[in-house]
Amino acid sequence: xxxxxxxxxxxxxxxxxxxxxxxxxxxxxxxxxxxxxxxxxxxxxxxxxxxxxxxxxxxxxxxxxxxxxxxxxxxxxxxxxxxxxxxxxxxxxxxxxxxxxxxxxxxxxxxxxxxxxxxxxxxxxxxxxxxxxxxxxxxxxxxxxxxxxxxxxxxxxxxxxxxxxxxxxxxxxxxxxxxxxxxxxxxxxxxxxxxxxxxxxxxxxxxxxxxxxxxxxxxxxxxxxxxxxxxxxxxxxxxxxxxxxxxxxxxxxxxxxxxxxxxxxxxxxxxxxxxxxxxxxxxxxxxxxxxxxxxxxxxxxxxxxxxxxxxxxxxxxxxxxxxxxxxxxxxxxxxxxxxxxxxxxxxxxxxxxxxxxxxxxxxxxxxxxxxxxxxxxxxxxxxxxxxxxxxxxxxxxxxxxxxxxxxxxxxxxxxxxxxxxxxxxxxxxxxxxxxxxxxxxxxxxxxxxxxxxxxxxxxxxxxxxxxxxxxxxxxxxxxxxxxxxxxxxxxxxxxxxxxxxxxxxxxxxxxxxxxxxxxxxxxxxxxxxxxxxxxxxxxxxxxxxxxxxxxxxxxxxxxxxxxxxxxxxxxxxxxxxx
Length: 578
What we know:
transmembrane helix; about 5% strand; xenobiotic transmembrane transporter activity; antiporter activity; membrane; mainly alpha; MATE_fam
């Protein structure tokens, strides 16, 4: 989701800023002066740029450029005969001493003092994340409810088609936009952090070119939505209506691309507020227009489908003046340089393809049940009921977003500071909080399930199946709560690959086959598909408990303390010393 990710990045930036300042102080404390003529033989040193920022180890081409573009960035001594570098051994000594002091300071604090302090911080971090998530979730929720009431006689079929079209967009369009956006965000942020402003704008232009290359394939896929869904075994009538939704939403592609690139350029500069404003304006304007078109013109449900492209149009237009008035844009925009930008496309592709696959894989894993629901008897009712149930689950998870993301940040900060005991305690707070909050969400779901389901469609069959499914699968909410909490700890400890392996094995290798067995062979229907998912979640929980029992927080803290921002390791070759 866009807004939670933006707010998360802003919170992360604010929390990391003091760490960056402290790191600069450590570098300065470890400064040594090396004669210019001996610089090429320097071992295990880090070079400062003109602003005191450490230059990371680069490729051999950087050494060849030392006497041209890199030379003005090196920090000379007052005499001009030496270059200021950082002795890696001194940095390690300082970090070792700080780690020892941090462990001793943490050991002197009472457990409940740490728990109370971190609980307050987590609450403060969670509130903006929850609000941002609601801002992203509620507009889609309102549009889905509107679709179910446009034509009461065909509400189930239309709502099922709307859910299927959303699934296709999530996999084809959202996966592409979010994946490439993640890669462009990373490169733009690195360029801004390295004060390479011209390069920042060239990355934006390269991003536009990359999107332009992908746009025809994405458009063809969306315009062929009906045939794709029929090929996947979905009901032909429902697939036909879903194809109409996808045809309208194809209009959003160019505006979504423009908005995504502008967002990357501004977000790299830590400018966040315009996104929140543009999103609010976009949803309000498009929501009102969609309502008028749906209920007061012959367009009907297609009027609601226009909300997405209208929203992207408004959001893009709202950000254009922000870009044009941006001081950095006015001072450093190099003009349109397609040849230079094209040279950067391979770099974006290398990072972007993996990001697209990662995002798409995550979305496909969560929405796979929606496709399988369309293979069951009475597909329209099953897809609609599954969409309502999924919406209930997502709503009950809103408070979890805050504590899981906030907990991941605080665990990472504690590990980076060498405070293993504090990190372990925060991990326990996150796990207890996740299970407790999701359990309360489960209890609340019991009371709101029936009226919530009826707000989507007047069809008694679909609502009855959705409510029955909710009551049968209530335990899945705290089970998912445990899983989300466990995933946040794995990310905070830098174990993303292990987390991905857990997800793949538990959700796909175990969850999908077991779900199909329950649904098809044992006549479990839609509930059977979700029971298979629950089995996968249960295995994930067991694996997570074993991992938590076996890990050494002290080892994780030592690793984080000595690897955060620093990559010394063994002494590099002279040509790679920079």
